[in-house]
Write a structure and sequence with these properties.
The structure holds two protein chains of two kinds. By secondary structure, chain A is mostly helical. Chain A has helices at 26-33, 65-83, 88-110; strands at residues 2-3, 115-117. Chain B has two domains: 18-129; 132-260, Alpha-Beta Plaits. Classes of the chains: A mainly alpha, B alpha+beta. Chain A: This is Gas vesicle structural protein GvpA.
């Protein structure tokens, strides 16, 4: 056995098709424990028990038509909002996101996540499936 | 933290988990034999099973009993596996097994997994002593990165003019071209920003595993293996980088965790 980088070329992390939406942190757990770590088959054969694992689709980030169109639409929206006069909507937006941010942070800390965060912002680690378009705007 | 390190040694294989044919033993990871699970440590299963150890010589396996009639892999199962190992790494070296390792019974854990491989396992545990894995993840802030690309790339800026206010159907080709430029540009920015991150961590002399991106707007996704007691300094270094990238990249640090990314066994069956 050697202690060395396992190499990132394993075809992407797991994730995606879980029975319920990923909460913050779970996606990272999936990325880590499903396709990394020591494989017991390398040591043991006779007593290995095959137990059913819930299907978890491997999630590989592959650029697709959807991705391209989504980026283009994001650019389109970028322009629209740039042309909007700054004013009350921006202010309201800031307050709202500030409040939400606090809540998010509290929830995550309460859940005992070992996530160190920077800049006072907790990134909602919502790992979208490739086709999901859900984003924060 | 879910396990304690005690001075006690080699207890044999214990007797608290007699297994029938409808049950088996789930294995989380391998630790030095002086590691003792805390009373409240819980593992996979519903309800979560109690953690125990199977010892053999200088090594031990963290295990729990599981019924065979229930599929594994609920969010709680996954979290329990990770939390046990990540809690352990703060008190003792641990070789994390990939999720889903199940053997017939405790005797099999001792005789097949531990006994024949003791030297190899001990050697790996010694190499990991005092080390822990951390994962650094960065995600581009979409507005900022798109604006950056439009500012730098005249083709992208022109295409943006073409689609301005037009329907998706009427400008599909221009949109495809624009999206492709953006995607390719983000890929090269990701490579550069990953390099920058690794450079910022040089002083820790870490082992680095570049992970594949998990999202098209990932800026960096790496695992590093370094000294556990340098965590504070790691946070400082990343905070500095995060300030430099403020509003451009949201940077997150995960860990300390077990060294999932750095443990490889090249040849199945090749004993220690």
């Amino acid at each position: 056995m050697t202690i060395q980088p396992a190499g990132g070329g394993g075809g992407g992390g797991g994730g995606g098709g879980m029975a319920r939406p990923n909460s913050s942190g779970l996606a990272d757990v999936i990325d880590t424990i499903l396709d990394k770590g020591l494989v017991i088959d390398a040591f043991v054969r006779v007593s290995l028990v095959g137990i059913e694992l819930l299907t978890i689709d491997a999630r590989v980030v592959v650029a697709s038509v959807d991705t391209y169109l989504r980026f283009a639409e994001a650019v389109n929206r970028l322009e629209i909002s740039d042309n909007e006069p700054k004013g009350l909507p921006d202010l309201v937006g800031d307050i709202t996101s500030g409040g939400a941010r606090h809540k998010t942070k509290g929830a995550i800390e309460a859940a005992g996540e070992k996530v160190s965060e920077f800049l006072g912002e907790v990134q909602q680690q919502r790992e979208a499936a490739p086709r999901s378009r859900r984003r924060e705007d | 933290m879910s396990t304690d390190r005690t001075e006690q040694n080699g207890n044999g294989t214990g007797s608290d988990a007699g297994t029938g044919s409808d049950a088996a033993v789930y294995v989380y990871g391998i630790v030095p034999s002086d590691v003792e699970p805390e009373d409240h440590a819980r593992g996979v299963g519903e309800p979560p099973a109690e953690i125990s150890v199977v010892r053999s010589g200088r090594v031990a396996a963290l295990v729990s009993e599981i019924p065979l009639d229930r599929p594994l892999g609920t969010p709680d199962d996954l979290t329990a596996h990770a939390e046990l190992l990540d809690g352990t790494v703060t008190v003792a070296p641990v070789l994390p097994l990939r999720f889903g390792a199940v053997l017939t019974d405790r005797d099999a854990v001792a005789s097949e997994l531990l006994e024949g491989h003791e030297e190899e396992l001990v050697s790996a545990l010694e190499q990991l002593d005092g080390l822990a894995q951390f994962v650094v993840k960065g995600r581009y802030v979409e507005r900022t990165i798109l604006q950056e690309i439009l500012d730098e790339n005249t083709d992208a800026a022109q295409l943006r003019e073409q689609i301005r206010g037009q329907s998706e159907d009427a400008t599909r080709e221009a949109r495809m071209a624009l999206g492709e430029i953006i995607n390719a540009t983000i890929e090269s920015k990701r490579a550069e920003d990953t390099r920058r991150t690794v450079e910022a961590l040089e002083s820790f002399d870490p082992m680095v595993n570049e992970r594949p991106p998990t999202h098209e707007q990932d800026a960096v996704h790496i695992a590093v293996l370094m000294k556990l007691d340098e965590q504070d300094r790691l946070e400082d270094a990343l905070r500095e980088l995060a300030q430099e990238w403020e509003n451009r990249v949201d940077l997150n640090l995960l860990g300390p965790m077990a060294a999932y990314d750095f443990i490889t066994k090249s040849d199945p069956g090749e004993g220690g």
